Amino acid sequence: MSPTDHDLKAWETLQETPPEDHKIFRLFKRKSQHPGLSRPHDFVIVDCPDWVNMIVLTPEGQVILVEQYRHGSQSLSLEIPGGMVDPGESPEETARRELAEETGYTCEQWYNLGVVEPNPAFQTNRCWTYLGVLAKQTQEQHLDGSEMIHVETCPLSEISAHIKQGEITHSLVIAAFFHYIERFGGWTSPTQEQLDALPQANP
Questions:
Q1: Is 106's pLDDT higher than 70?
Q2: Distance (Å, whole) CA 157 – CA 189
Q3: Residues 196, 105, 188, 110, Cα dihedral to 10°
Q4: Is the pTM above the cut of 0.90?
């Protein structure tokens, strides 16, 4: 029987197990049935908070990058600042907070570039990308107890080479830069006219 003979969204949730709380995500199993299949199936669901990534530019057109050890890959990872949206916090508020905490930089202007679903096969969350411009270092880093983060700057024009050479491999970071080049047409700083066309984040 072809999937086109049925509504692909016609899954019915039959049962969910109590979630296991792992601090940065909750894990549970969901039993679901589709009318086009002969029996129900179990699916593992990772209930994650939403995330935010920030492409942050200085007045000189430098991108703020962070390097840290990632325990999943057991390797150093060159990334843009980012973090989890706390309960009761908007993605815009998270962008401002995480940038200041991780790097000590703050921005005068923020813009929403877009949103992706990190892995809709089993994760529940979304990841927002924000652009911050006119960034200045105004304070010291304020890191969590388990964080060790090195902050550096890089010309925007060199980001493409870092990706092609495998020096930036984090998929959500690459997705963020895709939003950027789609919005602005390349690896150059946006004009004020281009920025005015974007939805500006709330102060």
A1: yes
A2: 9
A3: -20
A4: yes
